[in-house]
Amino acid sequence: MSYEREDSSVSTKLTYLLIGGGIGAVIALLFAPKSGQELREDIAEATKKGYEKGKETAAHLQEAAGDYYEVTRERASEALHHAQESAHEFSERAKSAAAQTANPFSAAIEAGKEAYREEKRKNESRSISEGRPSYPVKEKKLEAVKKEAEDGENKE
Fold first, then answer.
1. Which of 63, 69, 83, 123 allows an S-S link to 134, with CB 3.0 to 4.6 Å?
2. C-alpha dist (Å) from residue 78 to 62, 71, 85, 90, 152
3. 65-122 pLDDT per residue, tens
4. Which residues contact 54 (CB under 8 A, 6 or more apart)?
5. How far is CA 57 from the centre of its chain?
């Protein structure tokens, strides 16, 4: 079963290559048939080259990381700005919808209250002036009551 790491990046591979190359160079210098002075100079030179190469790689990685940071920061800023605009737009739509919904209901309730008060005033004034209840009475019943009253007076 072979397992390949998918998360290894180019910089990681480059780092491993440089470390392996440095180790290989040191081993080659140690086993080379040279005098002690020449060997030490070669090791110092290889170390300086490795150090310089490491600094270059670090500078390159730092620059790339800075670029990625800037791009990511800009995208995050744009996403935040877009989210704020969307939230503001949504809140405005919600407020206007609530205002449109609330106003007709409030107006209808107020109109109903006013109609009730007006009808109540009419009925109160009519009942006071006529001396009878203000509820509706059908004509036939009213005539029957009047007829009974007249019949009752005629019999007496």
1. 123
2. 24, 11, 10, 18, 94
3. 888 888 898 998 998 888 888 888 888 888 777 776 666 677 777 788 888 888 877 7
4. 18
5. 41
Q: Using the structure block, give the residue that is written with the tokens 């072979």.
A: 2
Phi/psi for 8 (5° steps) reads -75, 135
Taking the C-alpha atoms of residue 24 and residue 31, their distance in angstroms, rounded to an integer, is 11
Residues counted in the chain: 156
Identify the burial level of 54 via C-beta atoms within 10 angstroms of its C-beta, where 0-12 means exposed, 13-18 middle and 19 or more buried. middle
pLDDT at 83: 87
Is the pTM higher than 0.70? Answer: no
For the chain, the farthest-separated pair of C-alpha atoms sits apart, in whole angstroms, at 159
Enumerate the H helices of the chain as residue ranges: 10-31, 36-130, 139-155
Tokens of 99: 């205002």
Domain ranges of the chain: 10-155
User: How many whole angstroms separate alpha carbon 92 and alpha carbon 19?
Assistant: 60
The first and second tokens of residue 147, run together, are 């007829």
